[in-house]
Write a structure and sequence with these properties.
By secondary structure, the protein is of the alpha/beta class. The chain has twelve helices and twelve strands. The strands form three sheets. A six-stranded parallel sheet has the order 2-1-3-4-5-11, sandwiched between helices. The protein has a four-stranded parallel sheet with strand order 7-6-8-9, covered by helices on one side. The structure holds beta-D-glucopyranose. Beta-D-glucopyranose binds next to loops.
């Protein structure tokens, strides 16, 4: 009898423990929404987040939205319905999540904007990113230094590109770069033969390589076909730089008579690092996605234990409704001279990946 009682008790304890464990895992569910699998960086961001969150005992729903805003909204709705406690969102269009984040708020789901600021909503709790203005400054300074502008050299011809207009980062990158380049344009040491300097004119929707290539083709045909030298191109990231290099190659650049212009980038995607090694792209910006993921996992941990998360910037990122408390990681420049130290010695890539 005693034995039977003990057995029943044992089953009851096991059952309640099981239920507890189940509830517990449910209450540790985190949603991670990434924009697209088409660019290397977001695949790395997504898998870093998933691995690091799971290592801390969280359950993760990780989804990519094929750069389609409606798909991303549906994925977020689904994450809320499934009981996610925190949403980590790298938005496609920063201004299109206002409605779905109202639902999140109503369900007490907290929201971290990942890499890209979410605009026009009070319902975003934290933002973690790299210092986006600084990314642009580093790109501008690279052009300044390679052309010798500080030493008074010039005039040089430059063309400017910007990122997707629905991504707040694109504006920040542009402002950072122009903070360095604009004074030289004003003084005539940098000349933009196309005269296309306005953000909306030079912006490439969806950060699309093909559209960047097409715009570069048009610029070359219209302004450089009669032998005018092209000295530098400001490209805000690697997906645009890939398209720009393709256009330059098709148009006969990369010879002694027509050398590649100084060309910037960002992300250190593998094809771009190869292009840097080959001398087709001059530099990129390394944003260690492992660091960003670790920072965001830390934020998730703080939120889940009802503590304020660590931030280091409470003034810069106004989303139109509020200043979102942010953590800014540090971007680093990479070119042919330092890629081995920065990318290989840190274990980010293996030498084989760059062959
Ligand atoms: C990111 C860049 C990336 C771009 C295109 C931006 O929001 O900060 O690292 O190159 O999106 O995906």
């Amino acid at each position: 009898m005693r034995k039977a009682l003990l057995a029943v008790l044992g089953v009851a304890i096991a059952l309640s423990f099981g239920a507890c464990a189940k509830d517990n895992s449910h209450s540790k569910l985190i949603g991670v929404a990434m924009p697209t699998q088409s660019l290397q960086r977001w695949n790395q961001d997504g898998s870093n987040m998933k691995t690091q969150l799971e290592a801390k005992g969280y359950q993760v729903i990780l989804q990519y939205a094929n750069n389609d805003v409606n798909t991303q909204v549906q994925q977020l709705e689904n994450m809320i319905t499934k009981g996610c406690k925190v949403l980590v969102i790298a938005s496609i269009d920063g201004s299109s999540l206002t409605e779905v984040l109202k639902t999140a708020k109503a369900r007490k789901v907290q929201v971290i904007a990942y890499d890209r600021l979410i605009m026009n909503t009070p319902n975003v709790d934290y933002y973690a990113t790299f210092d986006n203005f600084k990314v642009g400054v580093i790109q501008g300074q690279y052009i300044e230094s390679k052309l010798g502008l500080k030493d008074g050299k010039g005039p040089f011809n430059i063309e400017l590109f910007a990122g997707s207009p629905d991504d707040h980062n694109a504006t920040m990158f542009n402002q950072g770069a122009m903070s360095i380049l604009q004074p030289y344009i004003d003084s005539g040491k940098l000349v933009v033969p196309s005269k296309q300097t306005d953000f909306n004119t030079i912006a490439i929707p969806g950060w699309d390589s093909g559209k960047a290539q097409a715009r570069m083709d048009n610029l070359i045909t219209a302004f450089y076909s009669k032998g005018k030298k092209l000295d530098a191109i400001l490209s805000p990231n690697d997906s645009l730089a890939i398209g720009i290099v393709a256009s330059l190659k098709n148009n006969g650049y990369g010879t002694a008579r027509k050398p590649y212009p100084v060309l910037t980038g960002q992300d250190c995607d593998i094809p771009n690092v190869k292009a840097i090694i080959a001398g087709e792209q001059s530099m990129s910006i390394f944003k260690d996605t492992r660091t960003l993921a670790a920072q965001v996992v830390d934020m998730v941990d703080s939120i889940m234990s009802n503590k304020p998360a660590t931030v280091n910037d409470t003034t810069t990122y106004n989303n139109g409704v509020k200043v979102v408390p942010s953590f800014l990681c540090t971007p680093v420049f990479v070119d042919k001279s330092n890629y081995k130290t920065v990318l290989l010695d840190s274990g980010y890539y293996t030498a084989d990946q760059l062959k």
